[in-house]
């Protein structure tokens, strides 16, 4: 079963792709690797903003990271034409706007990581960074980027 079919089987609908918000492209393919720019969390069309551990609770933060993962998949499909060209999720970078006392960025980033494993199985298991930062673009609570290995296309 292809990955596009797997999304349908899981009942996952990808969001409409978000255009770049500054001077960059959402996805850059070089050889057999796709580099996906940091994606922000939109849930029901609204950006999840705030600081995790202060104005954003853990459940909302994990959902925001998952929303970033969904946007990564949407950007990949828009660039590649199909998620079936994905060979391996190599690495995710998770950035969490964190209150000074918040130390569970790794649990927030699981929202995106778990999505990749759900969709791609073993090919979705990846290396990762989960970093706490004082702020993110547009006040977003979470941002996630990705490096993805591709099959020949």
From TrEMBL:
It holds the Pfam family YjgF_endoribonc. Gene3D superfamilies: RutC-like. SUPFAM superfamilies: YjgF-like. Residues 5-142 form the Endoribonuclease L-PSP/chorismate mutase-like domain. PANTHER family: ENDORIBONUCLEASE L-PSP_CHORISMATE MUTASE-LIKE DOMAIN-CONTAINING PROTEIN (PTHR43760:SF1), ENDORIBONUCLEASE-RELATED (PTHR43760). This is Endoribonuclease. It comes from Aurantiacibacter luteus. The lineage of its organism: Bacteria, Pseudomonadati, Pseudomonadota, Alphaproteobacteria, Sphingomonadales.
């Amino acid at each position: 079963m292809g990955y596009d079919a797997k999304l349908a089987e899981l009942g996952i609908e990808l969001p409409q792709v978000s255009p770049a918000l500054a001077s960059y492209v959402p996805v850059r393919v070089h050889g057999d690797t796709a580099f996906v720019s940091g994606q922000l969390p939109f849930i029901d069309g609204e950006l999840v903003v705030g600081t995790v551990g202060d104005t954003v609770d853990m459940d909302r933060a994990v959902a925001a990271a998952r929303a970033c993962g969904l946007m990564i998949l949407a950007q990949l499909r828009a660039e590649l034409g199909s998620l079936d060209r994905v060979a391996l999720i190599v690495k995710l970078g998770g950035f969490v706007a964190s209150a000074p006392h918040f130390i569970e960025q790794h649990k927030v980033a699981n929202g995106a990581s778990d999505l990749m494993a759900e969709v791609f199985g073993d090919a979705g298991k990846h290396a990762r960074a989960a970093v706490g930062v004082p702020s993110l673009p547009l006040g977003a609570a979470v941002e996630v980027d990705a490096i993805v290995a591709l099959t020949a296309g």
